[in-house]
Amino acid sequence: MAVKGKVNVRDAIVNSLMRTTSGSKFSNLELDSALKKYDLSQKDRALFTAIYYGVIERRLTLDKIIGKLSSRSIEKIDPRTLEILRVALYQLRFMDRIPAHAAVSSAVDLTHKGGTDSFVNAVLRAYLRDPDVFEGEKMGFSGSELLSYKYSVPVWLIESWTKDYGFQTAEKIAAESCSRPTVTLRVNTITSSREDICRELVASGIEYELVDGCDSAVKLLSSCPLEEIAPLTDGRAYVQDMASQYASAVLDPVPGETVFDVCACPGGKSFSAAMHMENKGRVLSFDLHRSKLSLIDKGAEKLGINIIETFERDGRVFAEEYDGIADRIICDVPCSGLGVISKKPEIRYKDPGELSRLPEIQSAILENCSRYLKIGGILVYSTCTISRAENDDVYDRFISSTDCFEAVDFEVGGHCSAGGKLTLFPFDGTDGFFISKIKRVK
Length: 442
Fold this sequence. Notes:
By secondary structure, the protein is an alpha/beta fold. It contains 18 helices and 14 strands. The strands form three sheets. Strands 5, 6, 7, 8, 9, 10, 13 and 14 form an eight-stranded mixed sheet that branches. Strands 2-3-1-4 form a four-stranded antiparallel sheet. Helix 6 runs antiparallel to helix 7 and helix 9 (about 155-165) crosses helix 10 (about 165-175). It is globular. The model has no long low-confidence stretch (mean pLDDT about 95).
């Protein structure tokens, strides 16, 4: 139910941040829920989004500054007061258009009832006395710790990227994690054309650009609520990042084939496969969680696709009835998601111990589902991460372990694979993503 009447935007942001920090909601779901709940102007919706995502994104940096200024340790500041401090400090340090006095006074107002207004006021006034003191080098940071503080990325993650790609590339990845991502549409080529969609965007005053090498993609340059874009609401397009569209292009299914999407939810690649196939053939979409399969069923109905069948299935467990029947398989496996940090900023705070178990799961899915492929069939193994352990290492182990499959090189969107695999970085204009192509030869 929407909350009518005047809403204190910063109070609403603090409430949403508390839910996200506690782990009860993912940031994108909480933001969507909050914007539907509150009757906000377009200006306040933009402010809510900017501060909410910004605080999550910069939390590590903000907490280091708060810890330096506060007479209390971070752990001893009550959660609501801490979120209020983060919101105010984010505005002071990272937003140019909000006057300092407005950021401080609004934070103090929010803490009156809790009796911590004097504490909040003291911390923020201390910051304003000399903001330059909190530049990374002046804080005494260098190397990985400096990048961690500067871009609010944990040291372990900076070191992991450095190990995989070198320090300079690690900094470019970290910097991109703080960027504002663009939205890319995948045109529903079953019911519409890119030209028709572009004409409608122009008529609505929405700026866009076309993407070389992908005739189904339209990258939006204007920021506007997605529910106001008619092609999205009526099923003539859906949101799909360029990297995911590239993976579907590498799979390249044709009409009449049988395609498996073995970790399918929420369904974007299944939809793309059906569109490549002109809605002719079979797309079998599998997922471990039955509750998520309705997303695919509803999405397919909205898009006018009738060749998708959904099944609850663990990709690690062999199903004899599928042995050798698929022409093409997309294995977009569960991963750390480290390639989409700019869209889901809380991912940067994941426990590295939990992530270490992923390659074993990914390998099990790839090895099992490869058995469903026909001789001569194509399998695409992909992830939305840039971790070599989850990407190159899993792929290389599989290729080297059998003579029944071989690597297939490919070119997509101006990017060329090497040894059948391609890593896209966030600074390439896409999500961070891994795409590889495998052919069954016997």
